[in-house]
Amino acid sequence: MAENATVARPYAHAAFDSANATGELARWGDVLAAASTVIADERVAALLGNPSVRNSEIVALLADISGVGGDPKLRNFLQLLADNRRLALLPEITSQYEALRADVENTVEVTVTSAMPLTAEQADRLVAALAKRLGRTVRLHSTVDPALVGGAVVRAGDFVVDGSLRGRIERLGNIMAGA
Q: Which residues make Cβ contacts (< 8 Å) with residue 95, sequence separation at least 6?
C-alpha cells in the first residue's frame, strides 16, 4: 500500500541513519527483520490494538525475540514505533531499510527459483555473471519449484530473467494463440 510506504519512509531513514552512524547496518537489519517476522505473526498483530496490552510489553517482547539485548538505540526505536502506533509498519520499514543498506553496501538480493537444486558450481557461476551484469555484490537466495519443469527464474528487484521451461512453453503458447 502506497500510504504505508510513505508513512514508513521517515522511520526507515531514521533507523538507517542511526545504524550507519555507528557502523551497525547488519545488526540493525537483523533486528528489524526479526521484529518484522514477529509483528507479522497474527497472534502478535492482534496485540497491537488491544488496550489491555501496554506498549512497553510489546516492545519488551519484540526486544527479547529479535535480539536487541542492551542496545538502547534499538530499544528506543522500537518504543518510538510503539508510541506512535507504527509497529504494524515494521515489515515495510525493514524493506525500505534494507534497500537503503543495499545502496550503501553496493549489494543486491537475488532470488533464483529453479526446477532442481543448484549445485555449488552453478550458484558460483550465476553469482559471478550477475555481479558482472548488475555491477553489485550479489547475495543469492535459492529456492526450488518443480513446477518450472526445467531451467530457472532469476529475480533481482525489477530485473527478472525467466529461463524456465514452463515460461518458454507459456510464451510459445501466447505466440501461437496470437497467430
A: 12
